[in-house]
Amino acid sequence: MGSNLSFKKMLSYPFTFRQSFKRIQRSQSTKMVLEGPHNPKDQQIVDKFRELLFVEGQLQVKHFDYHTLLRFLRMRDFDLMKAKDMFLQYLKWREEFHVDAIAKEFKFEEYPEVKKCYPHGFHGVDRYGRPVYIERIGMIDLDTFLQVTSIERFLKHHVSEQEKTLNWRYPACSLAAKKHIASTTSILDVKDVGLSKFSKPARYLFMEIQKIDSSYYPETLHQLFIINAGSAFRVLWKAIRAFLDPRTLAKIRVLGTDYKSSLLEVIDPSTLPIFLGGNCTCAEYGCCLLSDKGPWNDPQIKQMLQGMLQTEDENEGELMNSQSSQDSSDGDPENVPIKSVWDVVSLRDEALRGNSETKYNDQVLLHKLQAFEPVLEDAKVKIRMLEVALEDTKSVLQGLSQRIEELKR
């Protein structure tokens, strides 16, 4: 069953969570900053989405938070069935690609060498508070890149960075900006990029990263600026855009060399690197793309997030012990995985909704039972159809019996 739970366990875990979360001491304002306001209409369709997934047999807790489900719904224009298929593929990919293990255990020791031949990284935040990600792909030395690492290892590194952004950078930016942050502003410098640089390994790497980002981390891009786009790149761009979905394309601005004013509209010059027209040099780190500058490295914010994750680990340990105790009769102990700050915040928010623990427990139980209503209704219809068929059969048999009696006379 992996991380799924039996129905009996699904009904029992809210009480366990409720007990565990009593230990999470966090102000209401901090909780609201991290979780952000929920649009009532969005909340309604997210609840329906959860019910649909529950009927499908998905009884997990991790990744079922409001914002994760909403991202998949938005990517599929709130079509529940399309969002369901996409989300189930996402869960399958996480299991097959061992994403949790990569995020926790993968070590990209060659990272400093990769940075030299492939300048990229996070650097500060935009004016709204979103993290800024920069790539200078025109400066990639692909031959050296393939000598110091492999495409497979770099893809694992990319996934680990995506997980870090979701579970660490976004929460840190939210605390710093005092509002919910869940998307990135990106800058892609394509100076000197053309068909000659788009070799087979480069195409494969691009396609794999694009697939991972669009299929498994949807709606995390706020805006992408492609700068220094010359005539050679614009020819290439016509081919690349065919692989991008319309929602992503709508967030992309392709600019030539006159890009400075556009970047400064969204990023303060004190944060924007000097090579992009800003004032920042990060001289103490060697250059801006080596600094990993941002709220996620602020000591005070790091302490807050680490405290939350430590509490989460303790709660998970308690949950495992409690679950093992509950399962001792059937010999099938399992646990509910909670691995990110968002999981803690989301479940805490759910547990406190309505300011009544009893009310919450009743609502959860009702919510799970309601998810079976469509199945029960379908069963009722089939039973009624069988009853009608039995009545018809009974009438036919009575007619045959009467005919037999008449023949006997």
From TrEMBL:
PROSITE patterns documented for this protein: CRAL_TRIO
Family: Belongs to the SFH family.
Keywords: Golgi apparatus, Protein transport, Transport
Keyword Transport on entry: yes
Protein's UniProt name: CRAL-TRIO domain-containing protein
PANTHER family: CRAL-TRIO DOMAIN-CONTAINING PROTEIN YKL091C-RELATED, PHOSPHATIDYLINOSITOL_PHOSPHATIDYLCHOLINE TRANSFER PROTEIN SFH11
Pfam families, per database record: CRAL_TRIO
Domain CRAL-TRIO: 110-284
Compartmental location: Cell membrane; Golgi apparatus membrane
GO BP term, pick one: protein transport
SUPFAM superfamilies in the cross-refs: CRAL/TRIO domain (SSF52087), CRAL/TRIO N-terminal domain (SSF46938)
Gene3D superfamilies linked: CRAL-TRIO lipid binding domain (3.40.525.10), N-terminal domain of phosphatidylinositol transfer protein sec14p (1.10.8.20)
Organism of this sequence: Fraxinus pennsylvanica
Topology relative to the membrane: Peripheral membrane protein
Domain of life: Eukaryota
One GO term describing the cellular component: plasma membrane
Region (Disordered): 312-335
